[in-house]
Amino acid sequence: MSGFTPMRWVRLAFVLAAAWSISAGVWGADHGRLSVAVAETDLESIVKAVGGNQVDTFSLFKGCILRKDLLVEAPAKVRLAKADAVVWTGYFNESAAIKASSDGTPSKGEAKGKPCKWIDVSPGATRVNVPTSVCDGYVDPSLMEGNPFFWLNPENGPIIARNVAEGLGDLRPEKRAYFLANATAFTAALDRDIARWKEELKPLAGLRVFCTQCGWQNFSQMGGPTFVVCKGTPGVLPTPDILVDHVKEMKAQIVLLDPNTPPEYGKAFRREAGLKVIDVPSSIESIPGAKSYSALFDNVVKSLQKAAGK
Question: Residue 73: helix, strand or coil by DSSP?
């Protein structure tokens, strides 16, 4: 050691620093945050809760996923090409729009020889309007699994979180325990919220609520009001006058008007005496300041309580 002059120590320090810098750069390139594309803003809030500091997320769609012209939002297309994973609901309309937006361009993972991971959050989720026999007549193949908005039943939240944790864990095995722990914490907090919402909805039992967004039928699993929707083709509304007559036939007292509903329908509902119309978004993307999954249900419960005078 006596042969090491101060200058040699300086040189050694530079060599070690350079080696550390190179190794850190390599580690960062392979183990930085995962870029995760998420079909829905509401699901994105769950991915953020489960992924924590290991993910950067962005949503692919805005508005109703049932529409035939569903497209990936322009700002998301560039990021999608660099995504490590796509989190989706298993609904074919989403996958078709996502595939169409890629134009055959490989994702970041595919460019490295690793295909982009598709994480379907639907396995195990409870559905409504699931076809039970051929007596139901023709069923759109994309709706064979039932109503696609299963995340509007918050009791599916823990299942979604678990599916996300498993999918992210496949991408990053050394962080699997971290993702699963986050999913468990998310579930514990959501369970407390669900218990509170059920108590708040009990006084609203017997209330009939018509929803312009068919997905709210999933929320009816929580008890309280009965949620009814148009019996036509999902995603396709009849004329305003026909729909108003349909709502009256169902003896609905309140109309939940989704912001994506064409304005002529809201006008028709509000002209009808005896109907109370309230604007209630079916996604946190349309609720000012809302960031969490629970905020979506806090909003609908409070809106219903106010409309019912409870």
Answer: coil
- DSSP assignment string, 220-266: GGGSSSEEE---SSTT----HHHHHHHHHHTT-SEEEE-TTS-HHHH
Q: Residue 105: which H helix or E strand, with range?
A: none
Residue 162 pLDDT greater than 60, yes or no = yes
Contacts for 121 with CB less than 8 Å, ≥ 6 apart: 43, 46, 87, 88, 89, 90, 151, 159, 160, 163, 164
Query: Contact at 8 Å (CB) between 298 and 304?
Result: no
Where is 85: in which H helix or E strand?
strand 85-88
The tokens for 139 are 């069923």
Query: Which of 25 and 265 is assigned the larger pLDDT?
Result: 265
End-to-end CA distance of the chain: 82
Give the pLDDT confidence of 224-264 residue by residue, as tens digits. 999 988 756 656 678 899 889 989 998 999 999 999 899 99
Distance CA 214, CA 231 (A): 9
DSSP state letters, 165-211: HHHHHHH-GGGHHHHHHHHHHHHHHHHHHHHHHHHHHGGGTT-EEEE
Where do the domains of the chain lie, and which CATH numbers do they carry? 32-194 (3.40.50.1980), 201-308 (3.40.50.1980)
Give the residues across from 279 on adjacent strands.
257
SS3 277: strand
Token readout for 262 is 């064409």
Least confident of 119-133, 137-151, 186-200, 253-267: 137-151
Name residues whose C-beta falls within 8 Å of residue 44's C-beta, 6 or more positions apart in sequence. Answer: 38, 57, 58, 59, 87
Cross-strand bridge partners of residue 228 = 210
